[in-house]
Write a structure and sequence with these properties.
The chain is of the alpha/beta class. It contains 6 helices and 13 strands. The protein has a 6-stranded mixed beta sheet, covered by helices on one side. Strands 7-8-9-11-10 form a 5-stranded mixed beta sheet, with helices on one face. A two-stranded antiparallel sheet has the order 2-3.
């Protein structure tokens, strides 16, 4: 049944894409064969489809969020990223989409903040991200890594987190993006993973969404022991706030986790927890033989 459902979704997506205008590939093919420096851009917790406003004690707006604001923030992220790309003379960036691109419908309370249906939101955010990545690929080679997340889960019949871990809009979004960009030689899009593990110029980078990682200090150690691998950087999200911590070192440099801020910023749930953080992203510079040398905090609100 699972295989049949996946094939049905794929068939519908293929039919939908065939009726769209092709996304034009960059005219220039970028050569990064001799690069010794690459970038990492994090995209986390966009919760596309949500529309809400968080107010302060005096009625002031702490955060306003909807579809148009998502677009504004994402294009501002690209504008700032291109400035850094040009400053650092990069020919390649690695984008880590750390999950929760969609607000989804993983619980009943979510339905109150949705602008429109989840299916429509899935198509909109998939098409936007395909165009966003294509536009960035006019400047650099782009490799995209994707993490499974909780808000993109489909939870039928009152099921709970993780019960249907393969029933997720994450897979649909990434399949759509791969189809739209398959002719773009400057872009590689990887399938969705619970845990990514990537070698970037000798630096071992792993990524998770974070809904199953309550303590990243422990997670980075546990993953190293369980999988018997070296991890230099663990990227996470989920908590809608930016943070980082060095937990040790090895002959290759520091061992640290980095938590990405969110695209959506403070929401009603964060307000209940009395937690807030501005919308943003992280951009890291990785150098061969040196590891991470620079962290850029990109502010979007």
């Amino acid at each position: 049944r699972e295989s049949a459902r996946a094939e049905m979704f794929e068939e519908k997506i293929i039919n939908a894409i065939e009726n769209l205008e092709p996304i034009k590939s960059p005219k220039v093919v970028i050569d990064n064969s001799n690069n010794t420096k690459e970038g990492i851009i994090t995209i986390a917790d966009a919760h596309f489809g949500r529309s809400d406003t968080v107010y302060g004690l005096n009625g002031e707006i702490i955060n306003d969020y909807n579809e148009d604001i998502f677009y504004q923030r994402m294009w501002e992220l690209q504008r700032q990223a291109i400035q850094i790309i040009q400053k650092e003379n990069l020919t390649k960036v690695n984008i880590f989409i750390l999950g929760d691109l969609l607000e989804g419908m993983n619980r009943k309370s979510v339905l109150q903040s949705l602008e429109y249906g989840v299916t429509e939101a899935t198509i909109k955010v998939s098409e936007f991200m395909a165009n966003w990545i294509s536009k960035l690929s006019e400047h650099v080679k782009v490799e995209v890594f994707n993490n499974a997340s909780n808000h993109c889960e489909i939870r039928p019949l009152g099921s709970k987190n993780g019960e249907f871990d393969k029933e997720s809009f994450d897979y649909i979004i990434v399949f759509y993006i791969k189809m739209r960009l398959e002719s773009n030689s400057n872009v590689i899009v990887h399938d969705v993973q619970n845990i990514n593990y990537v070698d970037i110029l000798g630096t071992k980078v792993s990524s998770v969404h974070g809904h199953n990682d309550k303590n990243l200090d422990n997670s980075i150690k546990d993953y190293c022991l369980f999988y018997n691998v070296r991890i230099d950087i663990l990227l996470g999200a989920h908590f809608h706030s930016g943070a980082s911590k060095v937990i040790g070192s090895n002959e290759f440099g520091n061992i640290e986790w980095i938590q990405s801020p969110s695209i959506c910023s403070t929401d009603g749930y964060a307000q209940k927890l009395k937690k807030s953080c501005k919308a943003g992203s992280k951009m890291l510079i990785i150098e061969e033989g040196k590891g991470k040398t620079i962290t850029y905090d990109i502010k979007l609100s």
